[in-house]
Amino acid sequence: MNQSKLIPCAVFGASGYSGVELVWLLHNHPQFNVAYGFTSSARPAEPIAALYPQLAGRCDLILQPWHPNLLGAVAQQVRVAFLALPHQTSAELAPLLIKAGMTVFDLSGAFRLQDAKQHQAAYGFKQPHLAQPVPYGLAEWVDLQGDEPLIAVPGCYPTAAATALMPVRAMLKPDSAPIVNAVSGVSGAGRAAQAHTSFCEVSLQAYAIGTHRHQAEMAQTLGCELLFVPHLGSFKRGILATVYAQLAAGVSAHQVQQAFHQAYADQPLVRICQTPPKLAQVVGTPYVDVHVTVIGSQLVVSVALDNLQKGAAAQAVQLANQYIGLPTECGLLHAGAVI
Ligand SMILES: NC(=O)C1=CN([C@@H]2O[C@H](COP(=O)(O)OP(=O)(O)OC[C@H]3O[C@@H](n4cnc5c(N)ncnc54)[C@H](OP(=O)(O)O)[C@@H]3O)[C@@H](O)[C@H]2O)C=CC1
Ligand SMILES: CC(=O)N[C@@H](CCC(=O)OP(=O)(O)O)C(=O)O
């Protein structure tokens, strides 16, 4: 492959779970080249395979500790930066990268919420002010122009909820808050060890009922109130969401099925399934699988996606593809998962 024809990019947070998936997807992409993979300043420089031995012989990227004095050299070489960092770290770094001329795809929640008060309440810090509004990159619904300096990649749970409800949001009973009941694998919490995500502690359990920061993100996208109940499951990766909503009077099952087919017929990474999806069919893939049931006025949508792919890295690459005018699925179908 002629490296000089590829678009050089940098992955920040490349030692983390979303970051390593980004590195692997971009490494296998026909149009991008990972020029830099950065970690926090706490690590020594080391091959990515030292952290992820499954990449030995397959990816020779050297991870480097990030230091702001590298910005000039990086900006000379890199056009696109992917941030897989803690929210506040992204909030601080993204404006610097934009100012240095890079286009930023941010996987954190730093720029997803448009309401400053909601952002402060959800994330506990003030959102930086930017000159332009930041598009929310729900890949099947956003229309990128290719000149935006920053794109906020949606959260993993909100991608599942929005995929389930966007096609029918105009068909729902007014003021009837949908319910999003979702189970995530432990990689959703990131790589750093924490007691509540350790092997001996995790056992299927609900958490943050009605208070999770993703509830506001889902409500913002869908334009209605809803209830979100996340669960942590004892498996590595994947999200299975069951979404319940009341349909407005007179809406038929046929209309609902048609709305889903119309919305997703031309979207290669959304698969409408004849049976409720299993996690195993999406883990390690960029797909989100959807099954729709209507029982009278009750809508039940079952959605499965991989939190690190469609819920994070693959959606970011999908957006980068759209940004530069490539097919949305370019480079995503054959790479597979790292962890
Ligand atoms: N995990 C998931 O399913 C999803 C995650 N996201 C979002 O993506 C982002 C990354 O999440 P995830 O991959 O899970 O996290 P991890 O904890 O696995 O990785 C975090 C990464 O950020 C780096 N980092 C931490 N602090 C700093 C700092 N001060 N300066 C530079 N680098 C730093 C870490 O480096 P080091 O190894 O040196 O500590 C590591 O590479 C988060 O914002 C998360 O909310 C979004 C969707 C899904
Ligand atoms: C299992 C688990 O802990 N999941 C994380 C959400 C995943 C994530 O990283 O959140 P963002 O998509 O907003 O970045 C949580 O509940 O906080």
Automatic annotation (TrEMBL):
The keyword Transmembrane helix does not apply. One of its GO terms (molecular function) is NAD binding. Its main location: cytoplasm. Transmembrane segments: none annotated. Pathway: Amino-acid biosynthesis; L-arginine biosynthesis; N(2)-acetyl-L-ornithine from L-glutamate: step 3/4. It catalyses: N-acetyl-L-glutamate 5-semialdehyde + phosphate + NADP(+) = N-acetyl-L-glutamyl 5-phosphate + NADPH + H(+). Keywords: Amino-acid biosynthesis, Arginine biosynthesis, Cytoplasm, NADP, Oxidoreductase. Gene3D superfamilies: Dihydrodipicolinate Reductase, domain 2, NAD(P)-binding Rossmann-like Domain. It is an enzyme of class 1 (oxidoreductase). CDD domains: AGPR_1_C, AGPR_1_N. Residues 8-147 form the Semialdehyde dehydrogenase NAD-binding domain. The active site is at C156. It comes from the Bacteria. It holds the Pfam family Semialdhyde_dh. Its EC number is 1.2.1.38. It is found in: Cytoplasm. GO terms for cellular component: cytoplasm. GO terms for biological process: L-arginine biosynthetic process. Belongs to the NAGSA dehydrogenase family. Type 1 subfamily. Catalyzes the NADPH-dependent reduction of N-acetyl-5-glutamyl phosphate to yield N-acetyl-L-glutamate 5-semialdehyde. PANTHER family: N-ACETYL-GAMMA-GLUTAMYL-PHOSPHATE REDUCTASE, CHLOROPLASTIC-RELATED, N-ACETYL-GAMMA-GLUTAMYL-PHOSPHATE REDUCTASE, CHLOROPLASTIC-RELATED-RELATED. This is N-acetyl-gamma-glutamyl-phosphate reductase. It comes from Pseudidiomarina maritima.
